[in-house]
Backbone:
């Protein structure tokens, strides 16, 4: 196990400390001292601060700058970008989980096809109400599948004021303390070579068409877009990283061939992949 992995697991263990202490005190009917309740949290964030300052930036700080890696878009059709690194880095407000240059995209097949944000009603919608749900996710390059994680449910949307508050104040915190797999949901990681890995998060449960160890071609369908993990609505969270484990990897900048990096709110059309040329037949023996 790497040092960065140990740091992240220790960090989460310290975060669970206050939860355990409060639970014990409440069940026993005791008054609990605020200092002892908050001490594990203070130690958790002190750990991250010390590691970032003297530990080479691990685990949630980017390495030295790299040139953007050009890859194909992971989707086809008409989509809209959100939380884009073209607007800011880190794009999601944190370097953790290799997210420095991550991007979220939602399907926009036509104006009005995607349900908008609701203030109060409905508080939640089924994932199939969104056009992104079930959309094919494609390999961005010829690659090897190094991680496939499935089994988490596609939950209702959180695209309302009550749903978003619940996601931010309750669900998001629990998922954070439960580990990276609860954040990214069902996910897939490709090894693109040269120390670069592509991660696809919030994948639809049971939609994977590949297994770990498979070789895939650029444009090949890998899975379907879903709403698993820490997600407010069905969408694809895509990022490049310098390692296969999002828990310890650092982000790598990307650019999509023919599109660049769409800005937040920008609608873009990703073309269908060009069919790969058939491999030549072996020559007949003389």
Residues:
């Amino acid at each position: 196990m790497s040092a960065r992995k140990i740091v992240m697991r220790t960090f989460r263990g310290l975060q669970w400390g206050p939860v355990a202490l409060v639970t014990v005190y409440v069940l026993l009917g005791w008054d609990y001292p605020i200092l002892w309740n908050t001490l594990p949290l203070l130690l958790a964030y002190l750990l991250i601060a010390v590691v970032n300052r003297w530990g080479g930036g691990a685990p949630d700080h980017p390495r030295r700058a790299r040139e953007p890696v050009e890859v194909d878009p992971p989707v086809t059709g008409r989509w809209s970008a959100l939380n884009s690194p073209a607007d800011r880095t880190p794009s999601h407000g944190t370097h953790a989980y290799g997210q420095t240059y991550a991007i979220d995209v939602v399907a926009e097949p036509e104006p009005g096809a995607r349900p908008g944000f609701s203030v109060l009603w409905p508080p939640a919608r089924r994932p199939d109400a969104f056009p992104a749900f079930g959309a094919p996710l494609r390999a961005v390059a010829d690659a090897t599948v190094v991680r496939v994680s499935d089994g988490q449910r596609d939950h209702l949307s959180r695209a309302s004021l009550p749903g978003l508050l619940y996601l931010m104040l309750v669900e998001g915190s629990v998922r954070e303390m439960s580990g990276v797999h609860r954040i990214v949901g069902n996910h897939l990681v490709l090894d693109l070579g040269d120390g670069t890995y592509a991660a696809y998060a919030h994948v639809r449960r049971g939609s994977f068409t590949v297994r770990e160890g498979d070789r895939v071609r650029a444009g090949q369908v890998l899975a379907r877009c879903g709403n698993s993990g820490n997600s407010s609505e069905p969408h694809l969270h895509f990022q490049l990283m310098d390692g296969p484990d999002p828990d310890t990897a650092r982000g790598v900048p990307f650019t999509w061939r023919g599109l660049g990096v769409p800005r937040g709110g920008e609608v873009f059309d990703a073309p269908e992949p060009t069919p790969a040329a058939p491999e030549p037949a072996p020559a007949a023996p003389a």
Residues 53-59 have pLDDT under 50 and may be disordered. The first helix runs from residue 3 to 28.
